[in-house]
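Dock adenosine-5'-triphosphate; give full complex structure.
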Amino acid sequence: MLETEELSKSFKGITAVEGVNIYMEKGESIGLLGPNGAGKSTTISMISSLLRPDSGDVRLYGKSVIQEPNAIRRVLGMVPQEIALYQELTAYENLKFFGRIYGLRGKQLEAKIQEVLELVGLTDRQKQLVRTYSGGMQRRVNMAAAMLHNPEILIMDEPTVGIDPQSRSHILEMVRELNQKQGLAVLYTSHYMEEVERLCDRLYIMDHGRVIAAGTKEELKSILSGEEAILIDLERPNGGLFNELEANQAIIQTIETEKGLKLIVPKGSKMLAEIFQAAERNDAQILRVNVQVPTLEDVFLHLTGRKLRD
Ligand SMILES: Nc1ncnc2c1ncn2[C@@H]1O[C@H](COP(=O)(O)OP(=O)(O)OP(=O)(O)O)[C@@H](O)[C@H]1O
């Protein structure tokens, strides 16, 4: 249905996106995952025809979006990262305004406004000024606005950044239902691994403007199928232990965590005795040790050498 061909974009000599190929089938839920500055927003701006690529193209049902931008605007609902609403109008008035831009009028517009308000759970609050809403509620109005023209594809740019946990959970649930029950195709960008794991069928991992890995969650995790993670909770951080483990050739990666350390080791390697000996040598108090199968977070770390969020 939708695909990009070698999309590239630079800003004043800085490469934001380079050679990105992404495709999306009808009704699919795709995640675009990467740290800040990876090029996610730039990519979706080009997909939605808001930004012209330096080279490459976007195709909707085989036709170039650059040549026919209106075709994608008709089928696409876009929820931008920034809240794009009139603060001094009510949610209802905002939706009326956006509905008119989409060419909706009269009873049809009225019915659609009520339908999308219901969808985002704001029917009861529709007559209140948007500025009195929480960030999460404003984001929900943004989503409602993106749904007014019955889009086939919903693109969401980090929709849960900076909002309260209740609204976050509400948004995730809503997106899942729209995708699974109504067959809406979703392109979801995030730097929260758990969100894309919950929502998306397939993932593209971006870093420094490029797609560095793509596939289903299972496919991506199989990159690390030969590895496992050992989580070590320490009474307090211990630099000596970290340095010793980091220097150990048998350990693939040593990462500091909130509670202590995480080691990526070859599957089945019998490292525990060695870890306890190292702890003793460094006077480190181990509270708990857990062995874990790799997560998508580990896959990201493996591919980039960095954590998703610092
Ligand atoms: N309009 C612009 N002018 C100059 N540089 C830009 C512009 N838009 C993006 N960039 C740069 O391009 C790179 C990619 O940015 P982009 O916003 O696409 O990343 P992102 O993955 O969406 O990150 P974030 O989560 O922070 O939005 C960054 O280095 C950014 O500073």
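Observed: The two ends are 35 Å apart (CA to CA).
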